[in-house]
Amino acid sequence: MPNAVGSLIAESDLKDLGVHTEMYVDAFVDIAKAGKITGMRKNIDKGRQVYGFAAGTKKLYDYLNNNPECMAAPVEYTNDIRSISSLDNFMSINNAVDIDLFGQVNAESAGIKHISGAGGQLDFVLGAYLSNGGKSFICMSSTFKTKDGTVTSRIKPTLSNGSIVTDTRANIHYFVTEYGIVNLKGLSTWQKAEALISVAHPDFRDQLIAEADKLHIWRNSNKR
């Protein structure tokens, strides 16, 4: 996802972007070489691309090598909510495994099966949420295919038993699938369920509505 989003940014008309990230990937190289990154509007580390670690192709390592515009910093600095939130208009973009109708995001497991650690996702979700003009985005495909070819919704009534809650329902800002984007900030439980179902795969929406009704989070009259 970072490289997919990055290639679109590299081809856009955006300018004077700044970088403050946990993981530096090839996409940042493409964006920088397209002249989109200057870092001159950053409140801290002006003119520097700040990152905790880098992973990618030889192109990335050649670009970072002895590049004074790039600054490797400890994760305790890059992922510190105070560092992130001090940067105005901070945009945080993260992927996830699934989300439930309460707005709880799992980015670490498939039920009890471990996939990834927590990483810095919640740090950047909270930091962007607190940034002046900042926005946090959780992005995922609406469905996935199991090994037997069954299409399954990533938006679930409740997270599967044993799933890890990476981001709490109180901290989610924007949520994105291929069917649209919704702003969940400040919504009541039933409003949040309605918004999430609106960007679910159409084949699963009626089923999700029925499940939300059973959970008493579908109707305004539930007052929850």
Keywords:
224 residues; 14 strands
In short:
By secondary structure, the protein is α/β, with parallel strands linked by helices. The protein is built from 8 helices and 14 strands.
Structure notes:
By secondary structure, the chain is α/β, with parallel strands linked by helices. It contains eight helices and 14 strands. A hairpin with a 2-residue loop joins strand 7 and strand 8 (113-114). Helix 1 runs parallel beside helix 2 and helix 7 (189-198) runs antiparallel to helix 8 (202-214). The radius of gyration is 19 Å and the shape is elongated.
Task: Give the helix/strand layout.
Elements: H1 2-10, E1 20-24, H2 26-33, E2 49-54, H3 58-64, E3 70-72, H4 75-78, H5 81-85, E4 91-95, E5 98-100, E6 105-106, E7 109-110, E8 113-114, H6 121-130, E9 135-139, E10 143-145, E11 151-153, E12 155-156, E13 174-177, E14 180-183, H7 189-198, H8 202-214
Parallel strand pairs: 1-2, 2-3, 4-9, 5-12, 9-13
Antiparallel strand pairs: 5-6, 7-8, 10-11, 13-14
Shape: elongated
Largest sheet: 4 strands, mixed
Which sequence of strands runs across the widest sheet?
4-9-13-14
Please work out how many helical segments DSSP would assign. 8
Percentage of residues in strands = 15-25%
Count of DSSP strands: 14
Relative helix content: 25-40%
